[in-house]
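Predict fold of MerR family transcriptional regulator; 208 aa.
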Amino acid sequence: MRMAELSRESGVPVPTIKYYLREGLLPAGERTGRNQARYDEAHVRRLKLVRALVDIGGMTIAGVREVLDAIDEPEPSLHHVLGVAQHGLPVLAADPDPAGRDWAIARVEEVAAEHGWELKEDDPVVAALVGVLCVLRDLGNTVLADRLPDYADAAERLAEADLGILDGLTATESIVEAAVVGTMLGDAMLAALRRIAHQQASARRFET
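Predicted 3D structure, encoded as tokens:
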């Protein structure tokens, strides 16, 4: 297919496709003449993945490139690729209070040990969780922080459900796309469900 058809099939505008080509996010097509190239379904899949990483995942171009480099390794490790993708997703960060940082780290490490989780010190998600705990401590809301093990239990069940969606997929690109979309939209779905549950629980507890 020509670039115009590639644009129609993928839903990505031609100028954006050219930009991705210049940035090395999309492999060059098969040359058929001067300033002309032929593309195939592999290019369509790659474009859809890039759009998912950028539009839904909110990744930077540099972050997308890291994910694609991991996918394009001769024998890519799916665990490694998913790790790179997760690492590139934006997280809600909070500047930790130095006075409470050690306390927060200790709480996170305690929960991680209980669940058999292996944490990396440079993981931005871990840093975000530490920051949130520091804010809770600064607000005097340690009651919520004390429920961290309960939240961890629920998160573990959700993670298993999330990854279960990937079982029927075989192509690495499709798995990464589904994981990113599931993480971002899954977060939104979980937030909405949580608010609905809050409304129902509040009605049961407090309405007379």
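The longest helix spans residues 172-206.
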